[in-house]
Each structure stands twice: as structure tokens, then as C-alpha cells.
Amino acid sequence: MTDAERLVRRASERGVTTLTLDSPHNRNALSVRLVQELYDGLDAAAKDPEIRAVVLTHTGGTFCAGADLAEATAAAPPASQSPEGEAAPGGPKGPDGSGASAPLGLARLLRTIVELPKPVVARVTGHVRAGGLGLLGACDIAVAGSGASFAFTEARLGLAPAVISMPLLPRLDPRAASRYYLTGERFDAEEAARIGLVTVAAGSGHEVDEALAPVLDGLRRTSPQGLAESKRLVTAEVLRGFDRDTDALAEQSARLFASDEAREGMTAFLERRAPAWAR
């Protein structure tokens, strides 16, 4: 595969690997292929002794739209069946062999980011929706520009932010989580910083890079051992949540995706119409 064909482009400079989500045709949705390429990029950065940090960024006006609803509606079993939460046989796999597109696969991707011995820094200048917010929650540091917007849209589709809650709820203001989980309202970068979703709310794209510069400079000055052990301290509580809740939340997510109500919500979204329950 050439660099031009990749959905996740990689570049490294001065000890920092940048992984750029580059699938603008579906708003950088978490398709099977994009997730697999993201695994590959994270794995390569983890194994490179010269790399101190990973920057996760994007092309286009959307950082990540969450699940690939076109794939989800095509692959979801009828609601009368009991979903197993596995990807189709022969599909891309996570590092442990799990189906990369299933809820359990998403949980393992998020855990991979949390457990990576190098810090992962999100650079966001566009929109973030649903599962894309899980990527932000899994990152250690996040800087968002004035063009960024955020929304937990799951409840409007007949779903819930189940799996992504593991990295998010330990970081979010509880009252804000209640409001935005339940209403699906859109909010900006300043509000995202206030509630703990991002670390810094910057201005334009240029100002985002200015805000990132001292962060990356600091990371470049760290020792590999000191960095890994310090990250272990600040992610310990998040990982305890993964240990406790992964199976139950993945099952909840798979059950909701397979429901008739969610199928209506996702189909209505793709057809740009209101779902049957909208008032």
C-alpha cells in the first residue's frame, strides 16, 4: 500500500510520530480499515526507541465521526439474533486477534492508546462526534482549535456512548457528562476544556500548533523510562475501568447496534431524515 492509499498517514520528526486520519469521504469514521491502520501506526511508534510521543490529527473538517454507520448498518444482524460483537470472518484484526470493527474491538483500540508507553496527543481542528470522542478520552493530552465542535450523538440514533465511557467518564465533569450524553447537544472547544474533554482550547489551526509546541518540546526532553512510568500513574484509574467494564459495555453496545430502533436511527441519519421517534 502506498502512502497515498493509506487512511492513516504516518510521519516522524524529532522524536514525534504524527498519525493523520485521512478518510474525508466518510468524515474519518472508524471503519475496519482505518482502525487496523491506526493499530499499525501505534504499534510502530511503540516499538521505535527514538519516538517519545504520538500526535493524532486529521485532514478535512472532521477529526472523527465515530462508527462507520454504512458498515454498521450493512453488518448488523437482525434484532431477533443475539449479536456476538465480532467482525466478519477474515476482516482486519486488532493486535490480540479481535475483530477491529466490533464494540469489543473498539474497546481494545481505546485501551491500546491508554496503555501505549508513549503519550498520545490529540490535535483537533474540526468536528468530533460519538466514538471520535472516545479517541479523545483515550489520549493523554488534547488540544482543540476554535473550529472544533463536539457532540455525543448516540442517544439520538438509538444507541448509547457505552464503550467510550471507559476513557471518558473518569475525565469528564459528571454534571456535564449527564447533560451532553442525554441531549446530544453540540458544544465548542472552550466548553470541552471546561468539562475536561480536552486539555487546551486554542484558536485557529496555527494557534493550535503554537499551543502544542511547548507540550511536544517537554515530551522530547523526557527519558523513555520516566515517560512510560509517569503515564502508567495517570492512566491507572482508567485502566481499572477497562478491566472491570469492557465485557459488559461491549455487550451493551453490540445489543443496541443490533436493535430495530438503532437501525432506524442510523438509516435515518444516512438518509438525512428525522427518525420515526423525533418530535
What features would you describe in this structure?
The protein is an alpha/beta fold. It has one domain: Alpha-Beta Complex (2-enoyl-CoA Hydratase, Chain A, domain 1). The chain has helices at 32-47, 69-75, 103-115, 131-138, 165-168, 174-183, 189-194, 205-220, 224-257, 260-270, and strands at residues 8-13, 16-21, 53-58, 62-64, 120-124, 127-129, 141-144, 149-151, 187-188, 200-201. The strands form 2 sheets. It has a 6-stranded mixed sheet, with helices on both faces. A 4-stranded mixed sheet has the order 4-6-8-9. Helix 1 links the parallel strand 2 and strand 3 (53-58). The longest helix has 34 residues, at 224-257. The protein is globular and about 55 Å long. Residues 78-101 have low confidence and may be disordered.
